[in-house]
Design a protein that fits this description.
By secondary structure, the chain is mainly beta. The protein is built from six helices and 32 strands. The longest helix has 12 residues. The radius of gyration is 27 Å and the shape is globular.
């Protein structure tokens, strides 16, 4: 097994970094309605019980704004053992966690390492940090490193390895620190993620260089009780309490024309279902969406379109904020040790885009009907976010107005697959497109833009080279279940 050493000797004055301050919530965490096991502080992964440790003892920190600090979890609850240590960038307040483990079986889910391999040695003046990879006994895997401030190996019982059937593959995640000589430190996460993936994040880190990939040696944990979701995920009362506590208020741009609506309002206002074999005879969609085709695939056999009447068509495009509700999906992540509450917002229509060409703003008309101010991207702060470069791109304008949607006051729980009483609406299992496909003659549209703006066609063509493919056509989007992040990881 290879190892790499990296010793830095610098003489810098000690100064304070954001990490020297603990992150604190603005208010105490709430208590939740009772249930079998959600948010009780520990989870049984199948003979291995884990708990989350958020308090640490600093072992070492480098004196660099772009540097990192290394920590040992402390204190660890009685009966639990350290599985790995923690690392974080100096640029943020201390806010992380690692898992500690406890064997609650008679089959030996934890074991001490046989020895250690030194994988990294860093130092500033007379303070050093040694990072040790545990060498596990046969049938066990390490899920984190031990750390010392001296070159002496840590005691063998300082850290525990985990039985192999309770571990899964991990990979590097966010870069925490770029050290010298090609050495980098990353946070780690399960390699396979999603609602059906049992991998559990340990909260530890991985040291990498050009010749050593320790993410292939370290493991994450695995929840062998993954089929018992109802024992760890929030129940219906808890989902509602979570939505009430953490739901956002979504503000719309004062110039926004195309607002959201509920699906019931949308279907009640003349939306039509088209059959590819009988396009001339569309049928109205029932307000409950009960007559939509269910399941199948996005095969082009059916699609939805706005009302045929032009006046009604334009009215429905604008949505109806007054009766709008959002749609909630509760799903397990990281082996059901995390619960994601996902908010979906439905818009009947996306409006045209505006391009930025230097100091000039250029409405794109038909080109770009599915991007920006009228394309409904959301951001945490007002301003302009450019899709492209600082000089040429698509404008995403966000601003606060008196038009807003209070998610906690207007929502429906549309899906929580582990709760039998949550009945999914018919429209959620309609897997075809929610609009027709209209392909534009780009040459004709470019000529219109050139004639109306006076900007050279070559400049406009350069803009189109950096735009996403959606700007070249209007293609009806698919519903939530057809998106990768329905079952996947949103991050």
């Amino acid at each position: 097994m290879g190892n790499f050493l990296c010793c830095f000797i610098t003489n810098q004055e000690t100064k304070s970094f954001p990490i020297d301050t603990d992150f604190k919530f603005s208010s105490p965490l709430p208590s939740w309605p009772p249930s079998e096991g959600f948010a009780n502080g520990t989870i049984d992964l199948g003979g291995l019980q884990v708990c989350q440790i958020t308090s640490f003892t600093k072992i070492w920190s480098n004196s660099d704004d772009n540097g990192a600090s290394f920590f040992e979890p402390n204190p660890i609850p009685e009966g639990f053992s350290m599985l790995g240590c923690y690392c974080q960038s100096n640029a943020q307040p201390l806010f992380g966690w690692v898992l500690a483990g406890k064997d609650v079986s008679s089959t030996g889910t934890l074991a001490s390492p046989l020895d250690y391999t030194l994988v990294l040695n860093v130092g500033v003046v007379d303070k050093f940090c040694y990072i040790w990879l545990p060498i596990p006994p046969e049938g066990y895997n390490p899920v984190g490193y031990a750390i010392t401030s001296s070159s002496e190996k840590p005691p063998l019982d300082q850290i525990q390895c985990v039985r192999a059937d309770l571990t899964d593959e991990c990979e590097t995640d966010s870069l925490l620190w770029d050290a010298d000589d090609g050495v980098s430190v990353y946070s780690s996460r399960p390699k396979t993620r999603g609602t059906q993936a049992p991998g559990v994040c340990v909260g530890t880190f991985v040291v990498e260089d050009e010749n050593n990939s320790y993410s292939s040696i370290l493991s994450c944990l695995k929840n062998n009780n993954f089929n018992m979701l109802s024992s760890t995920m929030p129940n219906l009362a808890q989902i509602k309490a979570l939505v009430q506590e953490y739901s956002p208020r979504i503000y719309f741009h004062p110039s926004e024309t195309y607002l959201p609506s509920s699906t019931t309002w949308y279907f009640s206002n003349g939306v039509m279902l088209y059959d590819a074999g009988d396009e001339s005879n569309p049928i109205p969609v029932e307000p409950t969406s009960s007559n939509l085709p269910q399941g199948g695939s996005n095969d082009g056999a059916y699609w939805l379109d706005l009302p045929v009447d032009e006046v009604e068509r334009e009215r429905v495009k604008k949505g109806d904020l007054q009766t709008c509700e959002v749609y909630i999906h509760a799903k397990p992540m990281s082996g059901a040790t995390f619960s994601d509450i996902v908010v979906w917002i439905f818009y009947p229509f996306n409006g045209p885009s505006t391009a930025k060409l230097g100091l000039i703003d250029l409405p794109l008309g038909k080109i770009g009907k599915h991007s920006l101010l009228d394309g409904h991207a959301t951001y945490h702060a007002p301003g302009v976010v450019l899709q492209g470069t600082d000089v040429v791109g698509i404008r995403n304008d966000t601003a606060k107005s008196d038009m807003f949607l209070d998610v906690g006051a207007a929502y429906s729980i549309m899906a929580a697959e582990y709760i039998d009483s949550v009945i999914e609406p018919s429209w959620l299992n309609y897997f075809r497109k929610w609009g027709p496909k209209i392909t534009y003659e780009i040459g004709v549209e470019l000529e219109k833009l050139e004639n109306s703006s006076g900007i050279l066609g070559s400049v406009i063509e350069s803009l189109l080279e950096i735009l996403p493919s959606e700007v070249y056509e209007e293609d009806g989007p698919t519903g939530p279940k057809m998106k990768d992040y329905w079952d996947g990881d949103e991050r």
